[in-house]
Predict the 3D structure of the following.
Amino acid sequence: MQQKDLAIIASPLIKWYRQNKRPLPWRQDREPYHVWISEIMLQQTRIEAVIGYYSRFMQALPTVQTLSEIPEEQLLKLWEGLGYYSRARNLKKAAEMIMTEYGGAFPDTYEKLRRLPGIGDYTAGAIASICFNEPVPAVDGNVLRVLSRLTGSRKNVLLPETKKEATAVLTRMMPPEAGDFNEGLMELGETRCLPNGAPLCSDCPLQEYCTAYRKNLTEELPVRIKTVKRKKEEKTVLLLRAPDGATALEKRENKGLLAGLYQLPNVNGYLTDEEIIEQLAEWGLAAKSITPLGDAKHVFTHIDWMVKGYEITVSEKSDRFLWATPQELAQQYALPTAFQKFL
């Protein structure tokens, strides 16, 4: 199938989607606030994991207004575990903008949505088409994979120009049922045209149109060639426990990786026990015991942290750190997943 022939897939895809779509909580209505929150949460996170986060988020913040008013630290705690905390901060900024510039009414066009902090082409397209049926595409990794296999394209789907071309093609052939069409492409990519392992071609509504299926290229497509070299950083994380059971925390700088979030004390490089004792002395602390917690790896967008952890009981607290009780650690302070692993 060539790109110019893609319009033929709209009818069977929409029919299949309406009959087979999963009953996800954000699909119970077309409320843009619900679609927005779910789409931001679903970036880099599996649907199964998001469902619980989404339900808790909606219980705590059921409206745009409540999101606009929540203190940032409470929001980050609510977001804890989803990662990419700048997304949570942008949610709050966008909610504030909706309240002040749109009187609390959700923007109803792609162009207006694009103006909101944290909303890019894909999210704006998803909200505009699903909630307002605006004939605009929403192109993510699932959609690019489906299109690559349908057309037999060997273009690198990780390149911006490939996504731009796919967006232009879909814009020209967008059917009147834009929301169901976009969701159908996403659903197909998530449940049939799978990214890892063999796609479920025997249960695909577009099998007869698919070049990759016909030419036995489903394992080769899409083409994904990473052009950015990943950086590796070695770190030692210290889980410092005071005699009263409190845990030492410190706040990261307000810029850069994990900006403004709390973390367990850590240093670059792998430390020996002697070096750990020296580091503690610099912080005004003395160790009563040092227990290895093992190794861990945490993957960011362009950096891998290779971490060794130690639990250390100290003889007394130091004013250098914030000391959180177990209850405060559970309810108040948002700790990134990279550090939660050692709790």
Q: What stands out?
A: The chain has 15 helices and seven strands. The mean pLDDT is 95. Residues 38 and 54 are 7 Å apart (CA to CA). The first strand starts at residue 231 and ends at 241.
